[in-house]
Design a protein that fits this description.
Blueprint (H helix, E strand, L loop, with lengths): L1 H10 L1 H8 L4 H7 L3 E6 L4 E3 L7 E7 L1 E7 L5 E8 L3 E2 L2 H6 L6 E4 L3 E7 H10 L1 H27 L2 H11 L3 H4 L2 H8 L3 H12 L2
Helix pairs in contact: 5-6
Length: 200
């Protein structure tokens, strides 16, 4: 029964993949041996430097963050991800060098892991997975470029308003301390910005 439930949960990944690139049954059959289902407790680490990132994690339920820790142990969120999204340290995944990112469950979370060796096998044997990998790479590059530009060229208030416009669900899903860190500001600064806007 448990094995049946596990298979059913992994099948839910098909829905996420179809949104990226419509998948045929034979391509789905090819990936299944390389997938594993895992449960994370709140605040449990999925990746800790200097480990190498050997996975892409698809989030079945819950939410996850990736973040940097500086020399003074200050944390800065790079990504906040939840249901039907994926997370990895792509630089470490590609280079197979030590990760500089921590990945942590924000709440109880269920993830489906695709391992690096399995994905490489799929790249070598499947046109679909080769194309899928290219699309994901392009998405990561574009998101990373946009994020860098926002941090460099927008004020904290502009970053907040853009997030409110483009990702309104963030404010229902994540604690304000995590949103503040994602915006590169303190929780106090975020509170001031929110007050300024609500008073106008």
């Amino acid at each position: 029964m448990q094995e049946h439930l596990k298979i059913k949960k992994i099948e839910a990944l098909k829905h996420i993949l179809n949104k990226v690139l419509p998948i045929e049954e034979n391509d789905w059959v090819a990936i299944k041996p390389h997938l594993s289902l895992h449960n994370l407790e709140e605040n449990e680490q999925l990746l800790c430097p200097p480990d190498v990132c050997n996975f892409i994690a698809f989030i079945k339920s819950g939410s996850v963050r990736s973040y940097y820790v500086d020399d003074k142990l200050n944390e800065t969120n790079l990504l906040l991800k939840s249901e039907n999204e994926f997370i990895t340290d792509y630089e470490s995944f590609i280079s197979q060098e030590s990760s500089t990112l921590w990945i942590q469950a924000i709440e109880k979370t269920e993830i489906i892991l695709l391992d690096k060796v399995g994905l490489q096998t799929l790249y070598d044997t499947s046109f679909y997975w080769n194309k899928f990998g290219r699309i994901i790479s392009e998405q990561i590059f574009l998101n990373s470029k946009r994020r860098t530009e926002q941090m460099l060229f927008l004020t904290p208030k502009e970053r907040y308003l853009l997030l409110l416009k483009t990702q309104p669900h963030f404010f229902q899903k994540y604690a304000l301390k995590h949103i503040a860190s994602y915006l590169g500001i303190t929780p106090q600064s975020l509170s001031r910005i929110r007050n300024q806007i609500s008073n106008h």
